[in-house]
Amino acid sequence: MDRRERIEDPVEGLRAALDGKQAEMWTALPGLVESFDPQAMTVAVQPAIQGMQENEAGKALAVNLPLLVDVPVVFPSGGGFTLTHPIKPGDACLVVFASRCIDGWWQSGGVAQAPDNRMHDLSDGFALVGPRARAKTLSPAVDTQRVQLRTDDGQAHVTMAPDYTILAKNPAAKVELSPGGDVTMEASTSINLTAPVVNIQANSLSMSGLGGGDSQASFTGSISSTGDQVAGGISQMGHRHGDTQPGSGTTGVPQ
């Protein structure tokens, strides 16, 4: 028995009644994901705040709240686009409880009558995955100047800066778009292009080895051009041959 029930005070009695009613209303709770159904886009969630229950001796004991099942996951979406991400057991989430039964909407996806009169009930939650307890904050810390889509360890990310720089990076490669119009690509092993036709429009092309040294180019098949090619300072279109011989002889090396 609540001690306030022993007091002959109508205001205190009303306050006790309101407290009891408020205790039956659920608004939002942090929770931990138990399982994820990617087809139904729902999770099972263990609420991370315990409830209180009195035993037969009238002593209050902390108990786990029941597992919340078939909780719809909220992914950012709209206009025909959706941003999805994996959800794993142990991920933290915030479960927000609707003020009315959501079963009708859940079945049809449109405006529907509530089939039950329940309000602020544990059965009508939506899971927002991502809240972090102090003990599980990101390291390295959140970038305070740029927008990022990143791995938790920060080793891979897509970053957009206020000056319009866009950077995609992982431990072995990166692509950077500068605000001035330069596109820089780096890879620790190779950059591969695969297509039936690759078209390049440029006023000039240059190649050099890593560190500024010599580089090599190899082709399988034929090469054609409308202009000259120069190898070792010798023009392919304008060079002359010396040491020529009549008949079936061969020429000397190009000059």
Characterization of this structure:
- This protein is mainly beta.
- Helices cover 7% and strands 28% of the residues.
- The chain has two helices and 16 strands.
- It has a five-stranded antiparallel sheet with strand order 5-2-1-8-9, with no helix packed on it. Strands 10-11-12-13-14 form a five-stranded antiparallel sheet, with no helix packed on it. A two-stranded antiparallel sheet has the order 3-4.
- A hairpin with a 2-residue loop joins strand 15 and strand 16.
CA-based gyration radius = 35 Å
Strands of the largest sheet, in order across it?
A: 5-2-1-8-9
Largest sheet: 5 strands, antiparallel
What share of residues are in beta strands?
25-35%
Low-confidence stretches: none
Describe the structure in brief.
With 255 residues, the chain is mostly beta strands. 7% of the residues lie in helices and 28% in strands. It contains two helices and 16 strands.
List the helices and strands and how they pair.
Elements (H helix, E strand, L loop, with lengths): L9 H13 L5 E10 L4 E6 L3 E4 L5 E4 L4 E5 L4 E2 L2 E2 L9 E6 L5 H6 L16 E5 L17 E4 L6 E4 L5 E5 L2 E5 L5 E5 L42 E2 L2 E2 L20
Antiparallel strand pairs: 1-2, 1-8, 2-5, 3-4, 6-7, 8-9, 10-11, 11-12, 12-13, 13-14, 15-16
What would the keywords be for this entry?
five-stranded antiparallel beta sheet; mainly beta; single chain; 255 residues; 2 helices; 7% helix; elongated
